[in-house]
Amino acid sequence: MASVTSKTPMLRAAAARGYAAHAQAAAASRGSAEVQTTTLPNKLVVSSAEPNAAVSRISIAFRAGSRNETADSLGAAHVLRAAGGLSTKTATAFGITRNIQQSGGTLTSLADREVVSYSVAVTKDQLEVGLKYLEATATGQVFKPWELAELVPVIRNELARLPSEVQAVELLHKAAFRDGLGNSVFCPDYLVGKHSSETMQHYFATNCTTNRAAVAGVGVDHQLLVGFAQSLALESGAGGENKSTFNTGEVRREGSGSRAAVAVGTQAVGWKSLKEAAAFWVLHFAAGVGPATKRGANNGALTKALGGVNSSALFNGYTDNGLFGFIVSGNAKDAGKAVEAGVKALKSLSVTDACVSRGKALAVMAVADITENQSSLQHQLGEESVLLGQVYKKSDLIAAVNAVTTGDVQAAASKVASSKLAIGAVGNLSHVPHLCELH
Fold first, then answer.
1. To which H or E segment does residue 328 belong?
2. Most buried of 111, 274, 376, 395 (most Cβ within 10 A)?
3. In sequence order, which residues have a C-beta less than 8 Å from that of residue 21 and are 6 or more positions away?
4. 162-210 pLDDT tens trace
């Protein structure tokens, strides 16, 4: 059964406008598929790949993630995601659900710290229906008060089901960045149900503009997609960049039970610097992201030091900043010991040629997984287009990884070792050391 989850011109009119002479197009190769990228005069970026794919996947992405929230709009990005598929200026929630289901498609919305995106997936013969309701959902929301009220139990259920590890990473961001990137992807509990129609309309109007938008597609003709993008009823405007600086600090949330989850981070780099980010990415895999085989050992340069707890290296890269560290969860006593061992390992992190070779192999595999899966490829096209204004070629990404040397990774490790720490912790923290106790 098709589904509509919390994430209009007709197709022929969009196609006709798709050959406008003003668009400046550039093409890049991603594997065997050609990626085309066009920046419209209104600054909206359009990217597409694999036009002959059996299923058409199209997304409209905005730089409207939680880092763009202010004190008056905390949680708005979460609400925006949850409101995907609700009534719009041209369609009711029932009409959207009914028509997407009848077409056999799916309509979804996603939100993270930087991007809110709306995506539709349909067979080619249903593309007109898919684009119609994607446009309605992404550009015509009205945020009716009674529909926002109906989202309250949905959002509360999401918050109640968050794994402790996710909570710890959210607290880590709050400790490390405070505002901007420190804003949680999830609505604060005390603000659930407090977002008015006016608040949401203002947040959308501020952050969902042509200068902050991209349209990405897989399995759709590029010129048709350009025409669709040109027809979108979006206001222009650049909005604020809301830069975030790294800060040392800790945020702890005490809880009952015998378990604890702790995320420890240092400052890393953003993806605007591909060469340096690639070194951190390889370091991430070399440091350990879990066993490679069933019942296998976690043999990363960092995670071996963390002992008998669930653990993984952490690398969260954003456009202009990032976090590198580790996550541990388990019995409170064991988690506390692992944090101490992990911090010592971070401060003396060293990698061998063998570690780097393994990290590079895993990174290349990750690139292939992303770019050769049509769903993740579409998501990646949208994120790169809206955040960077360009699309990296698959060959460029692999070349960047292969160009990383042991010296580059060791330089990244040295930057980690000299950086100040930030900590987010949740659960039974009686045995988890405070920041001031870690050296």
1. strand 322-331
2. 111
3. none
4. 999 999 999 999 999 988 999 999 999 999 999 999 999 999 999 999 9
